[in-house]
Amino acid sequence: MIPSDLSGALDREQANAELFELLRIPSVSADPTRAADMARTAEFLRAKLGKLGFAARVEATAGHPVVYAERLQAPGRPTVLIYGHYDVQPEAPLEEWTTPPFEPTVRDGRIYARGSTDDKGQAYAHVKGAELLLSRGELPVNVKFLLEGEEEVGSPNLDTYLRENAAELAADVIVISDGSRFAPDVPTITYGVRGLSYVELHVQGANRDLHSGSYGGAAPNPINALCEIIARLKDDQGRVTIPGFYDGIEPLTDEEREMWAGLPHSDEAFAASIGVSALPGEAGYTTLERIWGRPTLDVNGIWGGYQGEGSKTVIAAKAGAKVSMRLVPGQDPARITRLIQEYVPQIAPAGVTVEVLDHHGGQPVKLSTDSPYIRAADRALERVYGKPAVFARTGGSIPIVAAFTEILKAPVLFVDFGLNEDAPHSPNESFAVQDYHNGILTSAYLLEELGK
Amino acid sequence: MIPSDLSGALDREQANAELFELLRIPSVSADPTRAADMARTAEFLRAKLGKLGFAARVEATAGHPVVYAERLQAPGRPTVLIYGHYDVQPEAPLEEWTTPPFEPTVRDGRIYARGSTDDKGQAYAHVKGAELLLSRGELPVNVKFLLEGEEEVGSPNLDTYLRENAAELAADVIVISDGSRFAPDVPTITYGVRGLSYVELHVQGANRDLHSGSYGGAAPNPINALCEIIARLKDDQGRVTIPGFYDGIEPLTDEEREMWAGLPHSDEAFAASIGVSALPGEAGYTTLERIWGRPTLDVNGIWGGYQGEGSKTVIAAKAGAKVSMRLVPGQDPARITRLIQEYVPQIAPAGVTVEVLDHHGGQPVKLSTDSPYIRAADRALERVYGKPAVFARTGGSIPIVAAFTEILKAPVLFVDFGLNEDAPHSPNESFAVQDYHNGILTSAYLLEELGK
């Protein structure tokens, strides 16, 4: 079959209009008050895939529903399972958005909206990619779509869904577009993702808030204590101090370190892009190595005491923080969570009680760079960008990747359409219109290449 | 003149009803939306004092108004200035109140309401004390009331008011009831108060919130940085590490340490009363010494990143905390604030920028225990409680005490009616009905004793 040039056949206006409609639904999976919006989003996707001739349905789970669709018209050809998620991060802090998070707005060639790049825009690019190919005839491979609604809260119910439907979901390769390319105009294939262990620390001091004058000097202060605990979780070399944290980690290979050192990266430009004067982290590793190949610990949120106007002289009864650790191959999220749960009480100051709640985790994964699927993706990307792809890892985590490899026993192929500067998870998240359109073309060409 | 027994003459029902009316007005000085309530509270007090035959007026300031009233019918007799404040702390966290903070409710002999003990209840006891004496004839001394509305926000405008009205406010002694007695049934005269330096720390990392996967390991995390800064402000002996912090402090005298060691205090009972297992603090000092006679540093509030439901994998752009230091004689609030403003940038981790905002301060004060005024208070208390008073200090701060001593050049007499267990500044603040009534009697007897 002759590789088609589909660029001219893509109705970009129509593609944008459909994505905007999808982005207008506030599908925040973490917010219990938005359950109805979640259902509306799932139905939107089911209806669209149904129109394209897919056998599509919305599947209930113990949490938010899954959208499953399949079109199996290529007997003897490979089966491709395309995974994406239609849920998005909370929009807070709302006041920092230039335009409303759920009213998509194009500025300077970018679509600004929560979920524009993570992951509605990238997932929908595959839907449009399939539609584009169908406009030229039958799909050259069997295609299955699995679009979930709980990725941003750790996919608590997807494992069960995968186990119960393993036969139906069976595929030769799983394609995921839920991350960032290395740089603009740099087609990227990602062969590794970090894992995640996410916990919440609760520190309790007195049985009530206390007057800091009447008690200051004798009453334990849970906020000071929480800060001490957090400060003790890392040493002055940026290393995590939790005993056993680094045990079993696969060291970076010289080949990887050389490959990454050769990528177009500048610490100065990177620091400037986020407006900071330094890039602190684990000693002995480059910035890319620290983000892609080394584990980290970051506090994602903290609270306690008086946060309002003016001053309040109080010693709070309790304080809390959300802490996440990014993990690399060789680290097991469940084990890391257990280690921090054992360690925090040991480093807690006298007089307070601590609790470490387990939010969720995700397995770190690394893939072989010479599989035929990665080669097919390489060819597809070259057809869109006119240059070969670079091989990178990502610092992000896709918790269900491990489930795919374990339960469906299929290799996972990461072909990302987004960029870090899209600011996923932040106010003013965006997705370049050009990247969205390239994603649609890449998806269509990838199905062609996989069909060869 | 024969000491009168006024106990039988006190209409307790009426006294309670009036206080409840006062407590129903949400006079939160820190909340800009409650300016009208502040004005209503001031007018309530002016009207009451006017009815008692005081020349009473509400005086505008650059902030919330001051209520001033005087009745000068005792030529040749001493003049007593009674200070109190009608503003209250914010009620947050509202959900922890058993009954609404501004709907006074009596349970188990206690009046539950914001401001019940700090300071509406204690200040109004003096108003009722004067009324009680007037029911028997003219006041035996000249009495002036100064009731301000900005004590809980650091009395930013009172200094100016005192300077501009120094002549009118002139007094032989200033009486303040805005604190706690040592224990139930223990009449207490407080001869020292701690000072205060209150600052707000702001830490800025990147120019926007970042995805903790894509940036974790390289981007500075302002929450981790804030925790490190706060942890570094104290050493493992509970001492504040700010260079020069302890310079010039008047050491506790052996006499004071012995006197306090003799007071009925049990660390076990104290810890149990606030539900903690230990009382951490500066090494080498007893609990009472740490609260009354030594400086401290406490974080009163902290915030940053995601505080909502579930998990959000974000590296916040900024974080902040409110930090207060209680000071003792020999420490100057302005100097301490300058020291921490110089120190924090020095201990801030790389990659973040910090800002230390000055909220407000208060001078520490210590008084001589053998003045005739303290003796008069001792006699008045003995008439109410049937036992001599104990001499204590308080860990709290009354920022304007220094202004009184400096500007009005009059000694300040602390006769407190409340208790620590009243939980001022906390949810479910309360004031024992009995303590309120004893306060009224103490106030009346004190005026008699001062008139001798």
Verbal overview:
The structure is a homodimer of 452-residue chains. Chain A has 452 residues and is of the alpha+beta class. The first copy, chain A, has two domains: 6-193 and 364-451, Aminopeptidase (3-Layer(aba) Sandwich), CATH 3.40.630.10; 195-249 and 295-362, Alpha-Beta Plaits, CATH 3.30.70.360. Chain A is built from 14 helices and 18 strands. In chain A, α3 packs across α14. Chains A and B meet through β9, β10, α6, α7 and α10 of A and β9, β10, α6, α7 and α10 of B. Chains A, B: Residues 192-350 form the Peptidase M20 dimerisation domain.
Summarize the structure.
The structure is a homodimer of 452-residue chains. Chain A is an alpha+beta fold and 452 residues long.
